[in-house]
């Protein structure tokens, strides 16, 4: 199993300095590094008791108080995490990936636990669901946001919310897309740099979510179900001639909407490679056409009942995988965008899955045993800080290796591709294998 070198703890203390400044109190400044070190270090369980036994025997009460009951505001540390993430991977070529991750749980007393679809299990199960934000560039992810989604069985039960310590500001029912937009606003307010927002169909099917991204002036690429209704880009709004009675007061589209699946059926599908992997080029068949999404105001159209009018003009993209599965996406990139660029942006979302896997398997995101809102979110925050630190070390080590490998010459060195370009041409596995493994990760 791969292990961090012996000096990682001293590096952690230095890297955590700006976080500790925001914590203020001396006891909290002592407990925070211990907790993060416990998440990074060896051990099968990353809950409070086993970490305290490994790192600070006799300090269990203080560590538990720090994470579950202590009176301190997590917002300054969340802001600092965004600052550090931006320094690591922020930029105009970065992406902000919106997704959610499930934490399986037994019982029904932990905050937010209910029977929900758990992607990690591929079925509905008793779990907590966290809306996640991952900032990534050059195929290196840093998680920057985890916020609990409250199902109806919780959101509609004030007594239960109060018992779990859910803050008043978070007790009103909110959908996952609404939580995601609020987290995006928090990210933008901190000055984090990214070029595009990516999300799967769980968010992409929400018209308010897509419209919210456009209103914020963001470039976005989202998955959609094949049943999503769209219009051809050339659709026009007309005033139909009334056969009798009063003239029509509202216009209607001159073409009826179709499902995304039906719209793309006659399109030209081409084999496209969006990047190189360790086993060669990653390919699938793609088709793309310009459409207008049927998410405008509803309007009765003849005997068709209520129909949504044409909304924003975007790209409709289809992907036919070698498995036989077909996926659909909407992307608001300009009309002149090439198909390979469209394919690359819709396939970039996978990076959040790697981050989810690592924060669970390596850092114990799903090991928290408390029941409160505050404890869960503080544990999640410490997990993200630990993950950002490991990405910092891995990137720093990779940078030092590149300098050592640079050939010595008296001539002017030839220009080299940027790190972003190198990573995209090398592929995911080779990019990550060039970095030191995370604790518990097998060495390639």
Short description:
The protein is an alpha+beta fold. It contains 17 helices and 16 strands. The protein has helices at 8-15, 17-23, 26-40, 48-55, 60-69, 75-89, 152-155, 158-163, 176-189, 201-204, 207-215, 260-264, 339-347, 351-361, 373-405, 419-426, 428-433; strands spanning 95-104, 114-118, 123-137, 140-149, 196-199, 219-224, 229-232, 237-238, 252-253, 258-259, 270-277, 280-293, 298-300, 306-308, 313-320, 326-331.
Please tag this protein with its features.
39% helix; twelve-stranded mixed β-sheet; two-stranded antiparallel ribbon; disordered C terminus; 444 residues; alpha+beta; globular
The largest β sheet comes out as: 12 strands, mixed
Distance between the termini: 10 Å
Mean pLDDT: 87
Considering DSSP H and I runs of 4 or more, what fraction of the residues is helical? 25-40%
Radius of gyration computed on alpha carbons:
24 Å
Strand content: 15-25%
Q: Which word captures the global form?
A: globular
Number of helices: 17
* Secondary-structure-derived class: alpha+beta
């Amino acid at each position: 199993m791969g292990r961090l070198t012996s000096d990682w703890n001293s590096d952690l203390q230095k890297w955590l300095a700006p976080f500790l400044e925001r914590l203020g109190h001396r006891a909290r400044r002592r407990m925070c590094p211990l907790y993060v070190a416990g998440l990074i270090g060896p051990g099968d369980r990353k809950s409070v008791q086993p970490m305290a036994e490994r790192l600070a025997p006799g300090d269990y009460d203080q560590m538990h108080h720090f994470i579950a009951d202590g009176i301190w505001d997590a917002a300054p540390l969340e802001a600092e995490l965004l600052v550090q993430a931006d320094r690591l991977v922020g930029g105009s070529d970065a992406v902000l990936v919106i997704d959610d991750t499930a934490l399986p749980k037994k019982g029904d007393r932990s905050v937010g636990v209910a029977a929900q679809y758990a992607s990690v299990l591929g079925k509905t199960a008793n779990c907590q669901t966290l809306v996640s934000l991952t900032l990534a560039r050059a195929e290196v992810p840093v998680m920057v946001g985890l916020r609990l989604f409250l199902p109806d069985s919780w959101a509609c039960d004030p007594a239960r919310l109060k018992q779990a310590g859910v803050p008043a500001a978070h007790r009103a029912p909110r959908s996952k897309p609404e939580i995601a937009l609020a987290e995006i606003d928090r990210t933008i307010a901190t000055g984090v740099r990214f070029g595009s927002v990516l999300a799967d169909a769980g968010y992409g099917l929400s018209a308010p979510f897509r419209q919210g991204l456009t209103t914020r002036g963001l470039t976005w690429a989202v998955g959609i179900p094949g049943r999503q209704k769209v219009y051809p880009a050339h659709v026009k709004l007309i005033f139909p001639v009334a056969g009798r009675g009063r003239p029509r007061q509202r216009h209607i589209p001159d073409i009826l909407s179709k499902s995304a699946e039906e719209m793309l059926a006659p399109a030209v599908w081409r084999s496209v490679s969006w990047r190189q992997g360790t086993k060669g080029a990653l390919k699938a068949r793609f088709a793309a056409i310009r459409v207008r999404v049927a998410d405008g105001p509803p309007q009765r159209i003849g005997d068709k009942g209520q129909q949504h009018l044409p909304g924003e003009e975007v790209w409709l993209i289809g992907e036919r995988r070698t498995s036989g599965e077909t996926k659909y996406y909407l992307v608001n990139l300009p009309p002149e965008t090439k198909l390979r660029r469209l394919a690359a942006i819709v396939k970039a979302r996978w990076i959040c899955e790697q981050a989810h896997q690592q924060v669970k398997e390596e850092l114990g995101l799903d090991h928290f045993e408390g029941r409160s809102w505050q404890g869960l979110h503080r544990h999640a925050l410490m997990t993200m800080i630990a993950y950002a630190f490991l990405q910092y070390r891995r990137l720093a080590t990779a940078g030092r290796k590149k300098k050592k490998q640079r050939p010595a010459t008296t001539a002017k060195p030839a220009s080299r591709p940027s790190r972003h370009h190198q990573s995209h041409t090398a592929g995911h596995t080779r990019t990550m294998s060039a970095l030191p493994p995370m604790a518990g990760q097998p060495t390639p």
